[in-house]
Amino acid sequence: MLTCDVIMLQAKKGKKGPGEKGKGAGKGAGRMNGHHQENGMENVMLFEVVRLGKSAMQSVVDDWIESYKHDRDVALLDLINFFIQCSGCKGVVTGEMFRNMQNSEIIRKMTEEFDEDSGDYPLTMAGPQWKKFKSSFCEFIGVLVRQCQYSIIYDEYMMDTVISLLTGLSDSQVRAFRHTSTLAAMKLMTALVNVALNLSINMDNTQRQYEAERNKMIGKRANDRLELLLQKRKELQENQDEIENMMNAIFKGVFVHRYRDAIAEIRAICIEEIGVWMKMYSDAFLNDSYLKYVGWTMHDKQGEVRLKCLTALQGLYHNRELNAKLELFTSRFKDRIVSMTLDKEYDVAVQAIKLLTLVLHSSDEVLTAEDCESVYHLVYSAHRPVAVAAGEFLFKKLFSHRDPEDDSMPKRRGRQSVNANLIKTAVFFFLESELHEHAAYLVDSMWDCAAEILKDWECMISLLLDEPLPGEEALTDRQETALIEIMLCTIRQAAECHPPVGRGTGKRVLTAKEKKTQLDDRTRMTELFAIALPALLAKYSVDAEKVTNLLQLPQFFDLEIYTTGRLEKHLDSLLRQIREIVEKHTDTDVLEACSKTYHALCNEEFTIFNRVDIARSQLLDEQVDKFNRLLEDFLQEGEDPDEDDAYQVLSTLKRITAFHNAHDLSKWDLFTSNYKLLNTGIENGDMPEQIVIHALQCTHYVILWSLAKVSEGTSKKEDMLTLRKQMRAFCLMCQRYLTSVNTAVKEQAFTILCDLLLIFSHQIISGGREALEPLVYTPEASLQSDLLNFILDHVFIDQDEDSNSTDGQQDDEASKIEALHKRRNLLAAYCKLIIYNVVEMNTGADIFKQYMRYYNDYGDIIKETMSKTRQIDKIQCAKTLILSLQQLFNEMLSDLGPSFDRSSSAFCGIKELARRFSLTFGLDQLKTREAIAMLHKDGIEFAFKEPNPQGEGHPPLNLAFLDILSEFSSKLMRQDKRTVHMYLERFMTFQMALQREDCWLPLISYRNSLQAGGDDDTMSVVSGISSRGSSVRSKKAKPATGKRKLPEGKTSNVFNESSSSSTEVWMNREQSMQTPIMMPSPHLTSTIMREPKRLRPEESYMGTPQPQHHQTPMDYNTQVTWMLAQRQQQEEVARQQQERAMNYAKLRSNLQHAIRRGTGLMEDDEEPIVEDVMMSSEGRIEDLNEGMDFDTMDIDLPPSKNRRERSELKPDFFDPASIMDESVRSTHFLGYDAFQR
Question: Considering the entire predicted model, what is its pTM?
């Protein structure tokens, strides 16, 4: 079929077939598919067939062979161009190049024509059309050698040319050439190995035939046949020698260099193929000369290369006949293989374990006990494929050896069965591993390979109940406990059919076969344990650990079998045993297991429900009556209760609490008795700790069960009112217990309070449950304060201080971890209240400020809380963050005093915390624009909040806080930096701006952080007027409707408040006088940069009047520069203050007079006069409003050589020039709105 396709495609292209050789071959160049063609279209055809993944590859190869026989130069040139095209190169090798140029020159020419725009080439391209390219490419090479193996490959032309080309390409600097040619050379080598193997087989057969013929009697011997066989053997030997030369050329020219290529894919190709050679032709390749390359590469940095090494070795070790040749390699590289079981790449680790399993299968003596133990512990790995592979290794090592006598003997059951010893072995292994809490992981690891043993529950029951046989050693108590735990895990695995928690991604859909197996297993386990469980409970009734595990078995039963199998009497026996256990034990785990068992058996879907429900009611009636009776006597005893009575009350209360967790006990009215007990404990203060804890927990269950009934909608209105009253009274009771002297009681009260506040918050009415609105409870300020104080006192403490919460345990590592886990749960409970807006968000400041100090213990919880609060309210979250920094700053001031050292560890710690907070805002400044603006606003206000009692010449007490605030300056948008800087000016006096002492450095550095990068995106009002007056519009030229008036009483700058009189404006201006230390260049209105003119003071304030111009205020920073220059020129210390005041008075008078006259300050060709440095942002706006006519004012932005055209920028809403444009005034700006809040 492919031949037909080829012919049709050739017909469409108007070219000759592959077997034809026209007269014009080698001439008449043309273009086809974007490639230069002059040798027909064979190369395009070969490449297209491989690219499309056609199945009839042999037909294409046969056509090429015919073409080669007709004209080998043309056909070979087509094959060369095929390899070039498969590398993604656009160049084409011409006949002239092929005849006259060396391979190196051809490759250099192709490299020059390679497409460097993209790094993709066919082997790496994605998409459906390239999906099968690699497999088709490899298949083509294999088919080509197979079809040519009897003639063409021995002509000393075709193979020599191809190998020479591929060797040269494999040494290219171009990755595409190197990758493609290496793959081609390796596949070519594999095909040649196959040819060499066939030649070897034919030689052996010929030799055997020759020996057989020669051993015949002389009369029967055929001399002609002997000569023919000798000639055939000679030809085969010659062919084999040629093949060996070819293979040596490829191995030494390509493999030896490319197995350590810089590209991992190329290295992986080499290792994969050498594994094929050793497996295919082991007599020639399976020796240390070739195995060493695999051994060395097992240390490769890339996981995919190491993986290829292991898979190659697996193919060798799988064949036991090759084990003798692998002995030296195994002894040399065994340690490396064992270490790879802990590889960071899970796929590599899995294959390493499988390889060791094959090694173990070949010989038991190769791996030492230490080697095996390093694999054994991996059965507890959280990664299931690794664990399953380790389970297979463990099964092969410990469970697969059986005595031949066992197979010959009739099948026995129980403890006499073959599996009995294997189950004991599993128990011994589990105990020796000392990971007793991970029995479920051990069972899951061995489930696939040892299910028959693990599901032999009859044998397990026999080992637990039957007496040991004569001479058999009985199980110890510890071994029986381990066996019961393993038995429980096997039952759970069979019933649920999914891995344990922590291993695997979740439940998967079972196949029909798996579902049938699951049902069969549940039926069989129910039939066995429904009879055996009562006996097991009776035998181990006093052992809490064993009973706890055994009581979990009914949860996995098929309860219908109790009825269908007529096992009711066994059910009654089970209920009796459970009741006796409840009466015997006070351990919480045992009681909760009994409660869950009753809950599993009390299923209304099954007919056994009534029988179980009666037994449960009788048990609870007795326990509640006993509790009420004991409680009454206990409370009447007064301040000195009897210890035995206290123990009886506690025991009964534990049982009731455990059952109330899973069963509704509302009809017994437990709230009243428990509340009375708790109230007595508060009044007397000597109530035993455990009684209070369980009373709190029981009352908590009462509230939750009442809420469940009310939520169903079937209860009365009185029930809701009763629940509301009980809930509020219980919350108040828990709040009172927060001040208890006992830590465990306080922790219990705190945990219950957090749960109740979250449950009865405003979230309770969501989801269409508006009827529950009367139950919504908002904590008062006192309760919020008590909760926060509890967190600060019991969570944010050093490990050594937490002596009470360890309950007297030894101060070892386990107790410390347990105590930390408890504190983390307490902190998480409180943080949920913040996240769900139950308590005020600003209470999180006390939590956030601990972020650095307790990063290792609670960093993840605090960071997640910050993230969630930011999602709820960005601005409030920012205010909370800055509040936490302010609290730390105040604490530092109280400890170190106002004259602290800014290089101290306390101050540096606050700065580092601010830096961490800043990083949490991310890179998207638009999303956090309002929040960052509000953060700076609060920070500035805090810095200037406390004036220095020594006078205005000294910095405010909190001024150093600006150094901390500067950590957030990088998060401000460039437009907003100007606005924040203007707001900062409102709090500064003229004397502050002139200070240079070290104590003022925080102010200087903060101002510099606001000015850095901010001036490039802002412009002064002066920049709105062209130096040649081109932007000036007359009132007639500008329609009056083009502007909208700003509403009265408002201003577009939220930092400024509107002034009622010009006097207030100038007073505000006096207070806001400043002189920055670092001055940026002034903004110019002219596009020509020139040296500014030196003006006299009078000229700097009042220029020559120009009637056609409006008054323009002077640039802020240039005026600052002038003031500093004036101050530096006057060296007399005595006259500095007087001259500064005179200059300032003169400046104020002249500038105000100039602005109010409405006269211009510039001539057409003069440099712009700078804006008034003394004018505050508020005064500037007020005076501009008074001295300028906005209806005739139009800002024309001149082109600039120093920055992008303004048309390319977004509107600069924070530019003072925008204040002049009334169309901007009506816009609602995010940054301004944040500060208005």
Answer: 0.72
